[in-house]
Design goal:
This protein is an alpha/beta fold. It has 14 helices and nine strands. Strands 1, 2, 3, 4, 5, 6, 7, 8 and 9 form a nine-stranded mixed beta sheet that branches. The longest helix has 20 residues.
Length: 397
Amino acid sequence: MSFVYKLCLVLVFGVFCEAELRKEAYMTVPSLIKAAGYPVEKHRVTTPDGYVLQMHRIPAGRRSARRTGDLNAKGKKAILIIHGLLGGSSDFVIMGPERSLSYLLADAGYDVWLGNLRGTVYSTHTNLTKNDPKFWDFSFHEHGKYDLPAMIDRVLNITGLDKIMLVGYSMGTTSSFIMFSQRPEYNDKLIAFVALAPAVYMDNMKLIANLALNTLDIVNVMRARGMTSLQPQFLQGLISTLCNLKQPETDLCTNFIYTLVGEDFEQNDLEMVPIYLYRVQPASWRALEHYGKIAISGVFTTFSGGLSGPVKPYNLTNVKVPVTLLYGENDQLTEKSQIMRLADQLKSTGVLEEVRPGCSWPKFNHLDFVFAKDVGKIFNKPLIKLIDQLYNKYYTA
């Protein structure tokens, strides 16, 4: 493979070469946070099965006079944010101080912790390398059973608090509901859970899952070709070859993505698209298969026995904390009907706090929760008011 071709694998939508991407595309998350004028800390946690996960903490806002020694003062409000599939902690800072949830929360007085689930560039293993297929032998089941509990415990240990707030986006919600099912003792360590675009029931994706996993057998074809996981370089190569950022409304790739997540050209920030595409994180094939099993079976089930194995539902009656579900009116991936099904189930056990649209924008889609052009104004600032209300209602120091 020539050097030029390697270089242009990171072309996004066929327009930007590496030299033309803004510096934010290459910076580490701690560097991004520091450059934005916020204090930042790195924390590492090791799960019981040997994965080492790096967390990123923003302990105060830009204009805060707090010093490091004051950050754990009584009354400090801690919140843990968990990313979605192909994402990482970067998703909640990359849009900048005026738009990204993490910065806005820090400026509002929160002690913000950003999780990185196993598989991201901020994860390693005590014994396995990422070239070992065994490293990738996990789905969001392990995220919920091992990763989230380890991160929650780290936040509690460092802050000295007895409870924190949890926010999950997409796969971050899937992992969280699995944690509640598999590790119900963690209900006692949380104030409330805010689920953004919750991915629990996905009957609407049944036809696509069947086509990809059964008819085309894409995952096993990739494994047979030596691809142990879904890597960013593969996605970037496809994008650079097939897509055209200059004409998003007629571009086949953009329209294919919008078929999956919902069309919203108005909130598509063309300057940011190449940056967050360059920062796409790896994913395990098992996670895609697990979502496929959930979609095909119509049940929020474990992956036990594989794609065609027995259906074993997760026990959502183990959820004991107040849960708020926020959906996008135009989200075609985690669509409203499936979220309302989850809402009915949570309501029947008395833990549903609220279910409603994330904002009033009628085209708000799955990616808009983190990457909308106006995400700060139309979604994140109102979200912080909601989080404040939940803290005031359910937390007593």
